[in-house]
Amino acid sequence: MALEDDKPTASRLSDPERDLDLKGSIVAGVDDPDEGRSEEERAAIDRKLLWKLDLRLVPWLSLLYLVSFLDRTNIGNAKLVGLQDDLGMSNAQFNATLTIFFVSYSIFEPATNILLKRLRPSIFIPLIMMSWGICMTLMGIVHNYAGLMAVRWFLGLSEAGLFPGVGYFLSCWYKRSEFGVRMAIFFSAAALAGSFGGLLAAAIAKMHGVGGLAGWSWIFILEGLLTFLIGVASFWCVYDFPDQARFLSSDDRKRVLRRLALDQQSSAEHEEFKMDYFWASVKDWKTYTGAVIYMGADGALYAFSLFVPTIISELGNRFSCCYSSIRAQLLSVPPYAAAAILTVTVGYIADRTRQRGLCNIAVSFLGMAGFSMLLGCESAGGRYAGVFLGAMGIYPTIANTISWTSNNTEGVYKRGVSIGIIIGWGNLNGIVSSNIYREEDKPRYYPGHGVVLAYLVLFLFGGSVVQYLLLRRENGKRCRGERDAWVEGMDQSQVDLLGDQRPDFIYTL
């Protein structure tokens, strides 16, 4: 059997009318509140429902991630206004404070999606936000290296559940063809945090001396208090999974579950945790190719976001003789804004074309070109253009890689575990990212730029090519019926439990 129009989709059976027979065991368990309505009426109701979901879910979750990314990277802005000197830290010690965040962050990430499912999002997410808000505030009153190290460890622990949790949570609400652009909008908050963080840090730093505290102390204290307050508000603004969402009517909950069932997602069913789901993720080769791809994107992301104020401050000496740390904060805004726009654009294109792998590959060329310019250009203007391309080549691939993984991993808990492992491994590479931009390498930072370029070439680009080719090959086998033997002798309910190992499940390329 050949792929329809040679365009692989998340499911070989993508049209709802043709899906009902093969998905009968899932759909049969979900009432249809619109039985008897015409197709035009159903479409209108579906558009209204989707708009309601978008307004209730995406904006607030995006705000949470903006705050999260702001809090984990503002230490780079604080360094520019005296943090390192005031605490008497060496360059190695400052890098260690960056590194320790990623150790706790990565260790605890794989387990957080199970906790999210057990405790419910409306409880789990507000609690971790309040925790890291407290950690951020305490960072503003530390007096030495040891105190900063301790608080950064607990900050990583507290933040570990947000990004994989929200990625998993959103995948349980939207169809595969809708998820990518929502994930892109959510993640674009990280790029906006880079822009907003620079502006906010430049303004707060002017409070130097207020209350006897340094400007960098006020950056941590005010942003920490803001995070805590948003965490409290999240008890009312973060919702639970579709079958429990209190902002939907009973009929709308049924509509959400039914549209997931028609998309062959077990998110439409209640699923109890079993260790089999964990081992299914561990044994799946896609978990490891996804981890390699995400490693390339995330390692580059953290190197960029932590050190771009420092990189730009070095460029600034060649832009203007009256250059200041505040101007460095402000010059970091445009590259992040461009990255945010491209992130959402790529999410939209990938949803429409269902070619997430090709989108990753194409965007990675921007990042490789950008860091090549940072390595090779002599002019400050050329290297600043490299910063633009670097941001545009990194940020879109984060959301796109998570969407790619989610599209191709079926089963509520298996998907949660896979996303946790992939994101946890990617963030573990923040340990490398925290130590590659050394003081002794300025102003050109050849080792740092070289390592990021290697990550982009070997892991982001190379991993995306490998996964794309392997998925394409597997799709061909399934469409030719070479995997049909996997379900011989099984009834429909047993086939449904196979998730993405079902022979009729066609991977998103």
From TrEMBL:
Transmembrane segments: 95-116, 123-145, 151-171, 183-204, 216-239, 291-312, 332-350, 357-376, 382-404, 416-437, 449-471
Keywords from the UniProt entry: Membrane, Transmembrane, Transmembrane helix, Transport
PROSITE patterns in the record: MFS
Location(s), subcellular: Membrane
GO annotation, cellular component aspect: membrane
UniProt-annotated stretches for the region Disordered: 1-39
UniProt cross-references to InterPro entries, sorted A to Z: MFS (IPR011701), MFS_dom (IPR020846), MFS_trans_sf (IPR036259)
Topology term for the membrane: Multi-pass membrane protein
Molecular-function annotations in GO: transmembrane transporter activity
Tagged with keyword Electron transport: no
Gene3D superfamilies reported in the protein's UniProt record: MFS general substrate transporter like domains (1.20.1250.20)
Protein name in the entry: Major facilitator superfamily (MFS) profile domain-containing protein
